[in-house]
Amino acid sequence: MANSETxxxxxxxxAKEVVKREAFxxxxxxxxxxxxxxxxxxxxxxxxxxxxxxxxxxxxxLYMMVTMELTHLNMYMSGEFIKENKIADLYELxxxxxxxxxxxxxxxxxxxxxxxxxxxxxxxxxxxxxxMCRGVQxxxxxxxxxxxxxxxxxDVLPDIDDNIVDSGTIDDSIDFILLNFSEMNKLWVRMxxxxxxxxxxxxxxxxxxxxxxxxxxxxxxxRLEGVTVSKYQNHVLPAILKQLINCKDSIAQEYxxxxxxxxxxxxxxxxxxxTFLDTCCQPQGTVNxxxxxxxxxxxxxxxxxxxxSNIPEDIELFQIFSGKVTQIIQSRTEMPPEDILALQxxxxxxxxxxxPSETGYVDKVLENTCNIFNEERSRAKGCSAELSRMLRVPxxxxxxxxxxxxxxxxxxxxxxxxxxxxxxxxxxxxxNVIQTETHIDSHDQVDLFLTMISCLVTDQxxxxxxxxxxxxxxxxxxxxxxxVHQLTSGIPDQQFLILNTCKxxxxxxxxxxxxxTLPSLIFRAIQLCRVYHDLAAExxxxxKKVTKILMYINSLLSTLVKAEYWDLALRLFLQAALxxxxxxxxxxxxxxxEFVSQAFAxxxxxxxxxxxxLIAISLIVATFERTINFSEENxxxxxxxxxxxxxxxxxxxxQCRAVSLCAHLYWSGKNREMAG
Amino acid sequence: xxxxxxLKAVVSTQSTGYYDRGNHYEFVKxxxxxxxxxxxxxxxxxxxxxxxxxxxxxxxAGRNCRLRxxxxxxxSRRLVDIVHERELMVHQLSSYPETNSSLKMEVGIEDCLHxxxxxxxxxxxxxxxxxxxxxxxxxxxxIKHMELSIIKRETTGSGPNTYNENEQISRYxxxxxxxxxxxxxPIRLFLSAYDLTPTMKDVNKKFSVRYYxxxxxVDEEDxxxxxxxxxxxxxxxxxxxxxxxxxxxxxxNHT
Lengths: 676, 255
Prior knowledge:
- The complex is a heterodimer of chains A (about 675) and B (about 260).
- Chain A has helices at about 5-30, 35-45, 55-85, 85-95, 100-115, 120-130, 140-150, 170-195, 200-225, 230-245, 250-265, 265-270, 275-280, 290-305, 315-330, 335-355, 360-375, 385-400, 400-405, 410-415, 420-435, 445-450, 455, 470-485, 490-505, 510-535, 540-560, 565-585, 585-605, 610-625, 630-645, 650-665.
- With about 675 residues, chain A is an all-alpha fold.
- Chain A starts with a helix and ends in a 9-residue tail after the last helix.
- In chain B, strands 8, 10, 11, 13, 14 and 15 form a 6-stranded mixed beta sheet that branches.
- Chain B has about 260 residues and is mostly beta strands.
- Chains A and B meet through helix 5 and helix 7 of A and strand 11 and strand 12 of B.
C-alpha cells in the first residue's frame, strides 16, 4: 500500500481522472439513449472503487465522486425504464457484471429505481440488496458499499406514514437497517485485527475516521417515524446492544453507545435506562465507560431541567444512576481516580440541577466517594486536582456555606487531598463566605466550619517543612481574621458561644497565626460587651456575662503577650480598657484597671525605642483620658504612673510633649466621683 | 451439352480431431433427385421435401469438432458441378428433468481452509440461474477474492487419441476480501449471460461436451485453491414457441 501522502495523492488523482472520463462517456451514451454503452462506462468508472491502494480519506473522496455520477444513471433509469416497465430485466442485466464491486453498486442503483416503480415488493428488493452485499468482505470497500446502500435507500424505506400499501412494513425497514448495521460493524471491527501489530495505532486512527459510516445506520433508524418507544425498547435497542456486546471491541462500543445516546430521543432513554446501563456495566475492560455515563447523565439532566414533568414519577433518576455508578466503580478496580471523580461530579451536578432541594443526594455522592477511597486508599492517589474540582461544584452552586456545612461528608473528603490543594480549597471557601457576606450564626456550625478550614487555622501533619512565603501567609491569615467577623450571631448568648468556639480553634494556630487572627476576635468580644450593655434592661444576668467576656479577652491578650506581640497587645489592652470603662460595672472597672496596668507593664519592659516610647505613652494617656468611670482610687495611681513614665522619656522634647499630654488627665480627666 | 440436375440433401458430421484431421463422419444422408438429365435453359424452381428426418443430435460448432446439418444442391455437369450448401441449425429441446438434486459438499485443506459449497441444482437449463452459497467453516489463510468459473471441456477422439480441450467460459467474482469463520457468501450466476451449449455426451461416439463449475479462492500470495464440480446443461423449449411447433421433445439422454 502506498503510504506517503504524495503517493496517495498521485494515485487518487489518477483514479479521479479515470472516473471523470468514464462518467463523461457514460453521460454521453445515456443522452443518446444507449443504455448498454452507458452501463459499460459506468462499470469502468466503478472499477476504480476496487482499489486496495487508497487510504480511507482518499477512498472517501473517490467514493463521493463516483456516487455523485451514479445519480445521473439513477435519473436516467427512473425516466426511461419506469415508462417501459423493463426494470426487472435491468435488475437481472446488471448482475451479469463480472466483478462484484461494480456489480453491487449498479444493483443498488437499479434496485432503488425498481422499488420506486412499485412493480415488486419493497421488502423483497431491500432484503435482496442487503444480503447480496455480503459478497464484499473487504472492510474498507464493504463499509463504503453498505453506506451507499443506506444512503440510496434513504427515501424508499417503508415507514408508518407513507401511503404505499404493499408488503413492506416498518418492521422490515428496521430489520433491513439492523442487518446492514451489524454487517458494517463486523467489517469495522475486523479492521482492528488486520495487518501488523506495529501499525495498530495507525489502524485505530483509520477506524476512527470511518466511524461515522457505521453510526449513520443508527441515525437512520432514529429517523423512522414508526420507531416508537415500545419498538425501540423491544426490537431496536436489544438488537443493537447484542451486536455491541458480541463484537467485543472497545472502540466500537465506546463510539456506538455514545451514538445511541445522541441520536435517539430522551424519552426513549428514560424507558430503557436500566437495560442501557446494564450493558455499560458489562466487564469489558478497556472501554471507557466514563464518558458514556457522563453523556447520558448530562442529556437526561438537561431533559429534566427543560421540563420537570418529562421525567415520569416512577423513574428515580438519581437513585438509578447512583446505584449503577457505584456498581461500575466497584467492578472496575483499575479505574483511575480521575474517572471515578468525573463520574461522581456528574452525579453531583445531576442532583444539584434536577433535585435542588435534596441536599441529601449530594451528601450521598460524597459519602460514596469517601467509602470508595476508604476501602482502597491507593485508588485516591494523584486525584487532588479532580477532587478539588468536584468539591467546588456544590460550593459554586449553593453559593452559601451554610448548606455546605450540612453536608456531612464534605469535610471527610478533604482528607484525600494533598496539602496544597486542601489549602487552596479552604481559601476558596473562606473567600466565598466573605464575598457573599454569609453569617454563620450558630456555634455548632462555626465549629464545623472551622474544622473544615482547619488547613488555614492550624498546622497540618502533611505540610511541608519549608517555611511559606511570608506575604502569602499574611494574606491568608488576614483572610481568616476577616472571616471571624462573619462568624456572628444576632443573639448575644449565641455570640458568646461562637467566640469560645473560635478561640478554641484559633489558638491551635500557634504563635505565628494569632497575630492576625486574635485581634478580630478581641474586637468582636469588645463589641459583644457593648451589646450586652445596651441590652441591660432585658437581661438580668448581663453583668455576669460581661465579666466573663472580659476574662475571655484577658486570656486572649495574655496569649498575645506570651507570644511577644508587644505592640499589638498594648493597643488591644487599651482598647479593651475603653470598653471596660464604658460598661460601668464594678468588675469591669477592675478589669479595666488591670488592662491599663498591663499596658504599662508592656510599655515599661518592652518598648525600648524612644520614638516608639513616645507614641506608646501618648496612646496610653489618650486612651486613659477617654475613660470616665474609674474611681478616684484607681484613677489616681494610673494618672501618676502616666506622669512618671512621661517624665522618664529619653529626650527632653519628648518629655515635654508627654507631660503636657498628662495635663489633660488632671484637669479634664474624668472619674466617677467627678461624674463626668 | 447435357446438364444433370440433382438435388442432394446431405446431413453429415465433421469431426476434426487433432489426430484425426479432416475426418467427416456422416450420420444422416438423404438424397433426392430433382430433375432428370437434360438442359436447363431458363430459371425454374424445383420443389422438394424430406420427410421425417431423424435429427438425433444438436448442431454444434466447437474448437475441435463440429456437427452440422446442411442441404446441398448439386447440379452435375460434364466438367464441373455447381454446388450450393445451406446450413440448418438443430436444437435439442428437453423438459424439466425428473430428478434434479442440489450439489452440496464440504471440502477443504486440513487446518487451512474448510468450506461448504451449495449449488441449488445439478442440472441447469441454458437461461437458468445458479443460486447457492459458500459457507466458511474454517479460515486460516488470507483470502484475496473468490470466483466461480464455468469451464467447458470438449473431448474428441478415443482411446489413446483422446484430446480434451478446456475453455473458461466465464469468470465471475463472488467475493471480494477476506471472510471469517461463519460467513455465508451468496451466489447468483445468470447463465443467459454466456455463450453455452447443452451438455453432450459421446455424440455419435465421436465427441463430448461437458461443463464444470470451478470454484476458485485466491490468497494474498496468489495461490489458488479450487474445487471443480460437473453440472449438466440442457436446452429448454422457448415459451414463445407455439405448442404444435415445439418439435420433438427429445429423449432424456442426459442422465
